[in-house]
Amino acid sequence: MINKNNYETFFMSYIDNELNAAERVAVEAFVLSDSKYAEELALFEKTKLQTPSIENIEMEDKIFLYRFPEMQASLDTDFKKSLYKKEAPVRKIVFTPNILRASFAIAALLILFIGVQLFKSDAPIKEKAAIAKDSKEVSIQNENNSIAATSGLALNRKISNTEISKTSITKTNTANNTIDAKEEQTLTINDINNNITSPINTSTVSTEPVSELATDLKINEKELSTNTMEAEPNETVKKIRMTPTIYKEIDIDEDDRTINIGLLEIDGSAFRGITRRVSALLKRNKIEKEK
Amino acid sequence: MTDLEFNICVDDYSDGVYRFILKISKNKEDAKDIVQTAFEKLWVNREKVETLKAKSYLFTVAYHLMIDQLRKETKIIMTDSFDETTQTVSQGSSELKQLLLQAINNLNPTQKSLILLKDYEGYSYQEIGEIMQLSESQVKVYLHRARLILKNKLTHVEKMSA
Lengths: 291, 162
Prior knowledge:
The complex is a heterodimer of chains A (291) and B (162).
Chain A: H1 7-15, H2 21-33, H3 35-46, H4 69-72, H5 77-83, H6 97-151, H7 154-177, H8 179-192, H9 194-219, H10 221-242, H11 246-249, E1 258-261, E2 264-267, H12 268-290
Antiparallel strand pairs in A: 1-2
Chain B: H1 3-25, H2 28-44, H3 54-73, H4 94-105, H5 109-120, H6 125-132, H7 136-161
């Protein structure tokens, strides 16, 4: 029963609503017995918090807590499996001796084909080079001739004259025998490069006096060396000096290493490096095998 | 528990669980996370949990999650946790209300949880014991100690004011 010693426990149980009906009646009667207890009970009741409904505290984003049938919906497993993607199997290439041989054979055929193409492409270049060389030689000889004429040294004159006579005779022979051919030659050269025509023309022009010199040389070398060489070569020297840069442009010695495979043009210099490397490798292998 | 019953539980108990956790943890995001986790666990165990015990289950899970959270944080600062959330409470006197809130904030988390579960949620000692994994007598003793602390604080203030 409630008394002076345990009334606090009863009061707290009372405000917590943990007492049965008889106990509650007993507490209320005890409180009425003394106003001091009534104040005590009132104080305990003040320790009780108000009901939270007044506070209006609500959970935010409550919607995410609900469970709807749509949220549980799932695709059929067979259909899911049909969506899976498989990676393509990786092929491993094993270099068997047969494959290696075949690849070497193909490589050899390719090299051979490229070589044939190179050989074919070299042919017209050689023709061009020959024409250019002739023109070069003539021009060089003419230059020498002029130098010799101006220098006045007898030995140089003789050598140059004899050289000039050889080249000039051949040129004059070709010029005399086949005039039409000469014209055609000049025309074709003109077609190739207009710059080429001028030295050839100069050579043809210069050869005529040179041929006269050559014929006079047979009669009297001294007269030739004194009389004709002073007057005639000066004209050729002037003409040659008028166009000194032409011959640099006709430098055919530079190898045109373009490889024509069908419609493709490949830079041959790149292959040149590769072939060199391959040959160097082969040599090293041979040396290693020998060791 | 059916889907419909679960959704009814959300309607009926989510606010209460959220409020209970918010009062103690003082952090809205933590409180939301804890409530979500509690309902997630209820959904996972919906076959085992009876609908009538769903509320108790939710509070139990939420309480233990909160205790774990507080332990992780190591420092349990409970001061001012009631300042924002209980300003609208219409206690008899606003001054008395503020005093009570300050006194509650000074209680330890267990005592505070007991007061909240009893006063706000109206749980019995037995239910509180189930939620907090305490015996009924332990709940009674701890809760009465908390009440006495609060009463003494209020008495002291009243004497000072007088």
